[in-house]
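Fold it.
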Amino acid sequence: MRVAIFASGHGTNFDAIASSQILKDSGLEIEMLVCDQPGAEVISKAQKYNIPVFVNELKKFPDRNTYEKKIIEKLLPLNLEYIFLAGYMRVVTETLLTAYPNKIINIHPSLLPKFSGLDAIQRAFDSGEQKTGVTIHYIDEGVDTGPIICQNEVPIFSNDSVESLEQRIHDKEHEMYIQVILDLIKKESRNDHFEKSAY
């Protein structure tokens, strides 16, 4: 399964996916990292795995539409089956959604619809609630509003710091994203089998 990963920061989810032996053995091929921050740590992680990197800065374009058209121009020759957002801090617009309908998946560090948008972990920590979690969902034109694939709770303990909560959320994210990608690979391979059987 040929995919691209979009990320903007440290790249912990990118690293978990790229280093997963079970995903490699199942046929995952990461064709490109798309990053909107030229100084992001995730770039060196991609270079470590010899994954091509495309850095595309929004400020160099007159609008989001032109910015995303440039990304599409880079991705189309790769014949991707999915795009995975892994800490990509840009709202995806209709331009990219139209090019990859129902093929863009995001991970968000809360139990959506709670704490959608930025600073979800800090806001959950400050809320006084006893749990937050992780959501993996398809992207639509809203912010963190697309159809949910799966959710898992993460408890907020009374002795937690933001850092300890963030670490547990990241651990849960890595486990969930790998499982979702594995399920998609199995689904795609079943679809291929049915299509071939039909001929």
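Residues 2-198 form a domain with the Rossmann fold fold (CATH 3.40.50.170).
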